[in-house]
């Protein structure tokens, strides 16, 4: 057994069932008339009674979306409310919701905005990514929606993007009715209290984790693909844990699951490369289950598959991760929902983006890669992944297969608390100063969840410092040291205020804002910069826009954007032909951020992707899925990586097309090349 385990004191309920008894519960439940769960009834009743803020917290897959759908139907039928918004954290989920709601309410009544996609945005119901909705709030003072659904509120815990959810809650007009949907979190009462503090009374509906619509069974998997209950696993000291790098282990496991009627399954595997290796290896050792001819008859020319992809699908053993094209992922999702696949192998980092369940979920390892090396899956990640097990109406029970004890601990631990990662970005500051005074902006930031959770301690420290300073005429060394420690703690807790002060100083130094009386107003450069609606590298992109870096012809502008926006494995050390001007901008930004002791944003550039962007514009009048595949193959890039980069480039092109600068005309031409129907 592994020595590198995480033991946390938690009571794991006794498991009296044998594996055979567990497996005997497999089957399809009898068809029943659809009945709402109690938590759904309660939430719908509260919304219908006129509640202005409702937080619903329930496990993954328990039917939270139905609550939103039901209330939107009521609004459509009984109200003249014209502005309904539904936000999700990802483009893929926004696209899913767009298609889902278009079928329910009619395509003419549903729009979508995801940064790079804008369609029918004046419709009665608009689906948006959370960032796109936030951008409208800070850029359009007359944007006043009637009802908004904030889906996946637990993303507030994301250290990089979580602040967007805080901004949305703080900036949405108080008259707007808000429904917040969240997977299970550890501090729902605290979130409810904060929303009440910021927006007025908020009510809370919680569904207990143990009351899932499909009950879960948990078993361990060893290196041979054999299944064990927890007591058997704990007693048998000679068992070897499943080796997630051993390809033969997956063959044994899938055959075992098939023989026990535990398919379809989702296998969570830590990396894309291993996903690909597992699928390639295992698929050659399985019999065919799908006729590709029947699939082609259904899809026609909507999809073009390689011989390799045909083999994967015919064997019902496929992969679903960000390196694959959206067209492929959509096909896999449809096949999985229809129950026509054996196994989908997905990366653990993509778990939140998978919107389909399976009878069985297998977590191959408790670790995953991150920007800081390999890390343990968090409690919430394990629960989110496990929540995909068990299909309502199709399975009597769902099965979660794990490989070490730490994951079992996570299933019974309380969910992670939401912790604020809020800090005021340049984009937020610049756009808010259009309508807010500095004092009003500070009051807005005081409404953040960060300050709500720390306010009590901040007030206590201030009182302690005042008391100690006033109570001792002659302060001894110990008192002085204690006051110093308190001031250091106060400085740390007030870091959000410090960041605001320093970023305002930088915006003033680089002539984006100037003081006029008790306010700051935007300069001409500041007005131009405020058009950029991106948190990441905002300052660098804004200065590049103003200094004319983007005022190039189409191939060079495409090259620059592809080189600058490339991330992760696509980044190279070389600056290429056009990266020098951007590097000068970066050095300019770094000077000011170092001057004010701020953590400077990193600069990355890809000479390789620079060539790709230039090549596309020089060789294609329009890019679609077919040309995407050709370009990816020519440059040996994963289709999903290239697609994601094109989406990011399109997003920035939309921004550049709206600004009063020479690059806007070229940006509009490039949008025509990089935009296609999905």
Task: Explain this structure.
The chain is 48% helix and 12% strand. It has 678 residues and is α/β, with parallel strands linked by helices. It has four domains: 19-24 and 213-412, 3-Layer(aba) Sandwich (Rossmann fold); 38-206, Rossmann fold (3-Layer(aba) Sandwich); 436-520, no CATH class; 531-674, no CATH class. It has an eight-stranded mixed β-sheet, with helices on both faces. Helix 5 crosses helix 6, helix 9 (247-259) crosses helix 10 (272-283) and helix 18 (449-471) packs antiparallel against helix 19 (477-493). It starts with 18 loop residues before the first helix and ends with a helix. The model is unreliable at 1-8 (pLDDT under 50).
The whole-angstrom Rg is 27 Å
Helix-residue proportion: 40-55%
Count of all domains: 4
- Spans where pLDDT lies below 50 across 5 or more residues: 1-8
Let me know the largest β-sheet: 8 strands, mixed
CATH fold node name of the largest domain: Rossmann fold
The CATH architecture of the largest domain: 3-Layer(aba) Sandwich
Number of strands: 19
Assigned CATH class of the largest domain: Alpha Beta
């Amino acid at each position: 057994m592994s020595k590198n385990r995480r033991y946390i004191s938690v009571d794991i309920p006794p498991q009296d069932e044998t594996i055979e008894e567990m497996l005997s519960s497999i089957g399809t439940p009898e068809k029943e008339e659809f009945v709402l769960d109690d938590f759904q009834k309660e939430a719908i009743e509260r919304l219908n009674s006129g509640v202005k803020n409702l937080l619903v917290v329930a496990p993954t897959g328990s039917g939270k979306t139905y609550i939103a759908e039901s209330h939107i139907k009521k609004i459509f039928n009984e109200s003249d409310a014209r502005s309904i918004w539904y936000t999700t954290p990802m483009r893929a989920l926004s696209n899913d919701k767009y298609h889902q709601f278009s079928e329910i309410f009619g395509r003419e009544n549903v729009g979508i905005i995801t940064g790079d996609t804008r369609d029918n945005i004046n419709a009665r119901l608009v689906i948006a990514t959370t960032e796109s909705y936030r951008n409208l709030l800070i850029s359009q003072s007359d944007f006043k929606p009637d009802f908004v659904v904030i889906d996946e509120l637990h993303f507030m815990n994301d250290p990089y993007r979580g602040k967007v959810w805080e901004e949305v809650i703080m900036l949405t007009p108080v008259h707007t009715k808000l429904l917040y949907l969240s997977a299970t979190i550890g501090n729902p009462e605290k979130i409810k209290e904060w929303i009440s503090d910021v927006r007025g009374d908020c009510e809370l509906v919680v569904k207990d984790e143990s009351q899932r619509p499909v009950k879960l069974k948990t078993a361990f998997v060893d290196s041979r693909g054999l299944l064990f209950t927890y007591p058997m696993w704990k007693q048998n000291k000679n068992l070897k844990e499943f080796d997630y790098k051993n390809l033969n282990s997956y063959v044994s496991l899938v055959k075992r699951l098939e023989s026990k009627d535990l398919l379809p399954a989702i296998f969570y595997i830590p990396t894309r490369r291993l996903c690909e290796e597992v699928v390639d290896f295992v698929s050659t050792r399985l019999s065919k289950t799908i006729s590709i001819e029947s699939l082609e008859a259904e899809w026609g020319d909507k999809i073009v598959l390689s011989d390799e992809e045909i083999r994967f699908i015919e064997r019902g053993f496929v992969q679903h991760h960000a390196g694959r094209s959206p067209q492929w992922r959509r096909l896999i999702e449809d096949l999985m929902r229809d129950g026509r696949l054996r196994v989908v192998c997905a990366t653990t980092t993509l778990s939140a983006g998978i919107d389909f369940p399976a009878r069985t979920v297998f977590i191959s390892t408790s670790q995953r890669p991150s920007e800081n090396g390999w890390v343990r899956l968090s409690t919430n990640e394990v629960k989110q992944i496990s929540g995909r097990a068990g299909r309502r109406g199709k399975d009597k029970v769902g099965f979660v297969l794990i490989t070490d004890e730490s994951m079992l601990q996570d299933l019974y631990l309380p969910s992670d608390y939401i912790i604020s990662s809020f800090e005021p970005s340049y984009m937020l500051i610049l756009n808010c100063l259009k309508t807010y005074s500095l004092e009003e902006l500070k009051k807005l930031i005081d409404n953040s969840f960060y300050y709500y959770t720390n306010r009590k301690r901040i007030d206590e420290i201030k009182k302690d410092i005042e008391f100690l300073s006033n109570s001792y005429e002659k302060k001894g060394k110990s008192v002085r040291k204690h006051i110093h420690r308190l001031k250091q703690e106060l400085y740390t807790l007030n870091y959000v205020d410090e960041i605001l002060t320093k970023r305002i100083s930088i915006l003033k130094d680089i002539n984006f804002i100037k003081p006029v009386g008790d306010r700051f107003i935007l300069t001409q450069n500041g007005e131009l910069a405020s058009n950029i609606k991106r948190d990441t590298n905002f300052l660098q992109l804004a200065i590049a826009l103003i200094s004319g870096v983007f005022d190039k012809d189409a191939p060079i502008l495409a090259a620059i954007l592809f080189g600058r926006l490339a991330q992760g494995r696509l980044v190279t050390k070389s600056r290429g032909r056009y990266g020098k001007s951007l590097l000068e901008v970066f050095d300019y930004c770094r000077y000011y951020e170092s001057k004010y002791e701020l953590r400077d944003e990193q600069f990355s550039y890809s000479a390789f992707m620079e060539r790709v962007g230039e090549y596309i514009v020089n060789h294609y009048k329009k890019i679609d899925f077919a040309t995407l595949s050709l370009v990816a193959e020519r440059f040996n890039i994963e289709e999903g990586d290239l697609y994601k980069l094109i989406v990011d480039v399109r997003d920035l092109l939309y921004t550049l097309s709206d600004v009063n600068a020479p690059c806007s005309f070229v940006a509009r031409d490039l949008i025509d090349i990089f935009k296609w129907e999905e």
